[in-house]
């Protein structure tokens, strides 16, 4: 019994000792100090703004790396909410919109005249004698002007001030509707496209540019390794255009592909002008061959599809020709010569020079003076270094009338595509004038 009691008493004593043993406690460490910021006065944290709409409960900007993201932001991202791109793609540059290009801004009398005027013959006695509208906007010489055939109240002009201006000629308020300043250097030429409100321009920045006039944006750029001096749309396919430049290269471009489809290669000087025949099967190029002392290549007639010259001995006189124009009806073309006359050539092989007729009274003297036929082909109008317009009878080659237009050289003359008595001119003084 004593041994049994001693056994139980030992177990009870051990149990009481284990219960009475004190529980070890964690040592008391001093509280850790919070890290001080690197800068004593930190900038306030950016708090993203949210839309007031209940359906747009996600941040309007992407989270910045290293920034604290709140629970609401994390929930929005986890639920598939879209976050705006912090670097959105840049929109194409737009040209300044100064006025409207709509017909709604035209007076009723002018609008009725443009819509109901039939394309008839211009009476030789109805040649305009005075300026009706003067358009100011260019700050340097203007190289060319051209009317739009699809929107006959609009006129395009290209200048040495790096701009192409679109004019709403008879607009009540702002006549300068668009300033297309996409070129980085002087603009040499501009042409209207027959497909919508587009213009094609070229210049000293070694490029041709297709521009949407209505939206004021550049849609395509065609780069070259030469100064592009002239462009011309194909008469039967408005997706094709020809360009000529300072290295004597002639290139036929396809707008749909944005690339060259034909090249017309020959050792030529700078291209001064190009012109398609009325059927589009032939083209004529004029180049500056004064450095090579070989004038036989100054005017060349090409076969468009075969890319070969049909004749290179069309004009053998030692003058350059800054302008080439086909007659709209009869089988001949003319060339403005720096010999101060307009030469006449047959458009049928062998493209002979007419030695008995020429248009001469005006002056060229090295300026890029242009000429144009009237709609019916009865008249030829030419600019001149004395600032006048010279009107010639196309068949008689005699001078009909001389009209004072500018104080400095008159560079280009363009007949209106609907009203035969309306003529636009541009000058070396930067002015564009309308005769009516």
Automatic annotation (TrEMBL):
The keyword Nucleotide-binding does not apply. It comes from the Eukaryota. PROSITE patterns: WD_REPEATS_1, WD_REPEATS_2, WD_REPEATS_REGION. WD repeats lie at residues 135-169, 221-263. Residues 1-65 are annotated as: Disordered. Residues 1-11, 50-59 have a biased composition (Polar residues). It holds the Pfam family WD40. Keywords: Repeat, WD repeat. This is WD repeat-containing protein 25. It comes from Cinchona calisaya. The keyword Repeat applies.
């Amino acid at each position: 019994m004593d041994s049994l009691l001693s056994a139980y008493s030992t177990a009870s004593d051990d149990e009481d000792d284990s219960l009475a043993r004190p529980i070890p406690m964690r040592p008391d460490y001093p509280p850790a100090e919070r890290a001080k910021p690197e800068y004593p006065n930190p900038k306030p944290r950016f708090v993203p703004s949210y839309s007031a709409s209940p359906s747009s409960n996600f941040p309007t900007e992407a989270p910045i790396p290293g920034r604290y993201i709140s629970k609401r932001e994390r929930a929005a991202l986890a639920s598939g909410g879209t976050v705006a791109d912090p670097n959105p793609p840049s929109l194409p540059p737009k040209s300044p919109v100064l006025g409207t290009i709509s017909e709604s801004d035209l007076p009723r009398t002018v609008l009725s005249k443009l819509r109901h005027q039939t394309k008839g013959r211009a009476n030789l006695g109805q040649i305009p004698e005075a300026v009706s509208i003067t358009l100011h906007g260019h700050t340097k010489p203007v190289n060319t002007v051209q009317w739009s055939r699809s929107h006959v109240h609009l006129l395009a002009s290209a200048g040495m001030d790096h701009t192409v201006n679109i004019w709403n000629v008879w607009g009540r308020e702002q006549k300068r509707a668009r300033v297309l300043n996409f070129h980085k250097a002087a603009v040499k030429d501009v042409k209207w496209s027959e497909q919508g409100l587009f213009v094609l321009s070229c210049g000293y920045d070694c490029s041709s540019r297709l521009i949407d006039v209505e939206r004021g944006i550049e849609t395509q750029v065609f780069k070259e390794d030469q100064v592009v001096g002239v462009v011309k749309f194909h008469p039967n396919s408005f997706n094709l255009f020809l360009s000529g430049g300072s290295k004597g290269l002639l290139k036929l471009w396809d707008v749909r592909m944005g690339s060259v489809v034909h090249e017309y290669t020959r050792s030529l000087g700078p291209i001064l002008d190009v012109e398609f025949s009325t059927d589009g099967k032939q083209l004529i190029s004029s180049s500056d061959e004064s450095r090579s002392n070989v004038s036989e290549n100054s005017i060349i007639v090409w076969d468009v599809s075969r890319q070969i010259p049909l004749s290179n001995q069309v004009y053998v006189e030692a003058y350059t020709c800054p302008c080439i124009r086909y007659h709209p009806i009869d089988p001949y073309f003319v060339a403005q010569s720096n010999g101060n006359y307009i030469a006449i050539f047959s458009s049928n092989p062998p493209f002979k020079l007419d030695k008995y007729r020429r248009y001469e009274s005006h002056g060229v003297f090295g300026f890029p003076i242009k000429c144009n036929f009237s709609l019916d082909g009865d008249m030829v109008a030419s600019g001149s270094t004395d600032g006048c317009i010279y009107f010639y009878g196309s068949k008689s080659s005699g001078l009909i009338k001389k009209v004072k237009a500018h104080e400095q050289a008159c560079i280009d003359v363009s007949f209106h595509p609907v009203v035969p008595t309306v003529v636009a001119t541009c000058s070396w003084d930067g002015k564009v004038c309308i005769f009516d």
